[in-house]
């Protein structure tokens, strides 16, 4: 654990990419193999599930520290991070416990799931008593299930590549799939060519950057293919042998959640991997994303849900054909294989994402303006001769999203943020007018500069009307332009609407509160 805590502190102490990679590389060169496997798991979004209620952790930490629960809660609101708060308030260790490996701690934490509350408490108190502050912090992060490090999976793979002298793209592919850190060995995961789950293993997804400047900067339009950026769930549909597997971009196996696509097993050619978008398709039309949301997170799907929100795969690429990895081929060649696959399957549940015909950038701007009516987020631009890459890279794939919808809204509630914003009120609730009443309709916490956040924080502290635990009600005097990607009906919200990806676009110093938008304006957008 000590080695891992030192790694955590080294990464936390720098913003320099090379320094983070160097710290990870050193760790992968010296750490025990089982600890390395768990580190890879943690940094590739395979965190163990929480086994102890955070309310109990707060109670036990306050009791062990000899402070009142209200003082602990106030400290938590100021610090903004539960794991760090606990590490700060605990007294100095009373024993120097035997050093225990990272994997052993994690597996003991996972085993707490089925033990009594008293046994959980005894285990955690004993752990706290024998750890220094850094180890406690990491231990608390693990046990709360909120573990994050200031390093991306991409940087982790880069460090692994340097430590093992293995090409990064190959490593990225090897850590994909449904492997268990408790049972797989380091050699099986990274050093053996034939992985344990080769039949179901997906490829790393290729991701695009947003176009920020003029689209004309991409050069000759004839070098590019355009298609709509469908608003669904990114997925890879795999047919190897007689089995079909469906993976989400979050590396979650979701085959059973979308049985319509699983039924394609008998029609898909063996040895093919398709990349595309899972969409609700009903009455010959793509439906809004909010209908797809009714199926997200469901382990089992009822007949009623299948009838209400049937899905298709809108495929736009093929990564494997006849059992061969063809990602190195130019896009147009891969698309030819895709067309062959879709024609052979001949089933509405598998459709090819059509390319958009255009000869000038002006033609494409006109097509982009139709995106919302097509139930898409905008356009994707892909270089025709480009291979299928790994991760997010600039140059060959670009997303050109439509401009967001916007409304002007009034700030009515504020909460402190987390991490470096823990001492500032940066999480806000906004309202629009319904007659003479301000009705809350969304929350947002991004989009302002650090200087603007400090100014709003000062306003909140000077203009608080009421306090509800960590929440402050403030005088309705500040107006902000809220940008969002979509709007849907919602019975869970008082306003009756829910926004997709809301954020603050700008602070409207020029607009009085009385001129903020109304609920009718939102319903008109809906």
List the topology elements.
Blueprint: H1 2-12, H2 17-30, H3 33-43, H4 54-65, H5 69-79, H6 82-89, H7 102-110, H8 117-129, H9 133-144, H10 153-164, H11 168-174, H12 186-191, E1 206-207, E2 209-210, E3 224-230, E4 233-240, E5 243-248, H13 259-262, E6 272-282, E7 285-286, H14 289-293, H15 303-308, E8 311-321, E9 324-325, H16 331-345, E10 350-352, H17 361-368, E11 376-383, E12 391-392, E13 397-401, E14 405-416, E15 425-434, E16 437-444, H18 450-462, E17 464-468, E18 471-474, E19 479-484, E20 486-489, E21 497-500, E22 503-507, H19 519-525
Parallel strand pairs: 1-12, 2-13, 8-10
Antiparallel strand pairs: 3-11, 4-5, 4-6, 6-7, 6-8, 8-9, 11-13, 14-15, 14-18, 14-19, 15-16, 17-18, 19-22, 20-21
Helix pairs in contact: 1-2, 1-9, 2-10, 4-5, 5-6, 6-9
Notes on the structure:
With 526 residues, this protein is of the alpha+beta class. The chain has three domains: 143 residues, DNA ligase, ATP-dependent, N-terminal domain (DNA ligase i, domain 1); 196 residues, D-amino Acid Aminotransferase, Chain A, domain 1, CATH 3.30.470; 121 residues, Beta Barrel (OB fold (Dihydrolipoamide Acetyltransferase, E2P)), CATH 2.40.50.140. It is 35% helix and 24% strand. Strands 4, 5, 6, 7, 8, 9 and 10 form a seven-stranded mixed beta sheet that branches. Strands 14, 15, 16, 17, 18, 19 and 22 form a seven-stranded antiparallel beta sheet that branches. The protein has a four-stranded mixed beta sheet with strand order 2-13-11-3, with helices on one face. Helix 1 runs antiparallel to helix 2, helix 1 crosses helix 9 and helix 4 packs across helix 5. It is globular and about 70 Å long. The relative contact order is 0.09.
């Amino acid at each position: 654990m000590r080695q891992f805590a030192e790694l955590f502190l080294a990464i936390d102490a720098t913003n320099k990419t090379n320094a983070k990679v160097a710290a990870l590389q050193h760790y992968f060169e010296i750490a025990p193999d089982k600890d390395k496997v768990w580190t890879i798991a943690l940094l590739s979004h395979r965190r163990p599930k929480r086994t102890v209620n955070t309310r109990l952790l707060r109670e036990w930490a306050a009791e062990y520290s000899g402070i009142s629960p209200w003082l602990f809660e106030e400290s938590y609101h100021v610090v903004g991070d539960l794991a760090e708060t606990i590490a700060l308030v605990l007294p100095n260790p009373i024993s120097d416990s035997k050093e225990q490996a990272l994997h052993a701690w994690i597996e003991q934490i996972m085993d707490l799931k089925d033990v009594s509350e008293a046994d959980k408490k005894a285990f955690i108190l004993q752990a706290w008593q024998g750890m220094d502050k850094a180890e406690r912090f990491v231990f608390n992060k693990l046990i709360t299930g909120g573990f994050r490090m200031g390093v991306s999976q991409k940087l982790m793979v880069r460090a692994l590549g340097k430590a093992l002298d293995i090409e990064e793209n190959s490593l990225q592919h090897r850590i994909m799939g449904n492997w268990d850190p408790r049972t797989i060995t380091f050699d099986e995961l990274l050093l053996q060519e034939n992985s344990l789950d080769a039949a179901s293993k997906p490829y790393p997804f290729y991701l695009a950057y947003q176009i920020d400047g003029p689209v004309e900067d991409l050069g000759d339009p004839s070098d590019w293919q355009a298609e709509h950026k469908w608003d669904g769930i990114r997925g890879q549909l795999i047919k190897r042998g007689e089995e079909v597997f469906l993976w989400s971009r979050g590396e979650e196996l979701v085959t059973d959640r979308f049985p319509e696509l699983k039924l394609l097993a008998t029609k898909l050619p063996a040895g093919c991997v398709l990349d595309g978008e899972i969409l609700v398709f009903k009455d010959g039309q793509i439906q809004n994303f909010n209908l797809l949301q009714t199926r997200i997170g469901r382990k089992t799907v009822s007949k009623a849900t299948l009838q209400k929100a049937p899905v298709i795969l809108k495929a736009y690429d093929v990564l494997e054909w006849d059992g061969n990895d063809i990602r190195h081929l130019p896009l147009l060649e891969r698309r030819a294989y895709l067309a062959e696959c879709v024609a052979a399957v001949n089933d509405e549940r598998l459709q090819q994402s059509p390319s958009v015909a255009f000869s000038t950038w002006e033609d494409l701007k006109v097509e982009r303006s139709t995106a919302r009516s097509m139930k898409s987020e905008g356009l994707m631009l892909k270089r025709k001769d480009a291979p299928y890459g790994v991760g997010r890279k600039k140059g060959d794939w670009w997303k050109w999203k439509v401009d967001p919808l916007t409304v002007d809204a009034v700030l009515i509630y504020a909460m402190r943020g987390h991490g470096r914003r823990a001492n500032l009120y940066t999480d806000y609730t906004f309202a629009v007018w319904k007659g003479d009443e301000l009705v809350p309709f969304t929350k947002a916490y991004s989009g302002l500069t650090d200087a603007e956040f400090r100014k709003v924080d000062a306003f909140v502290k000077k203009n608080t009307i009421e306090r509800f635990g960590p929440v402050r009600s403030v005088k309705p005097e500040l107006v902000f332009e809220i940008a969002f990607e979509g709007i849907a009906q919602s019975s869970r919200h008082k306003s009756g609407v829910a926004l997709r990806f809301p954020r603050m676009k700008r602070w409207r110093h020029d607009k009085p509160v009385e001129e903020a938008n109304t609920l009718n304006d939102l319903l008109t957008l809906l």
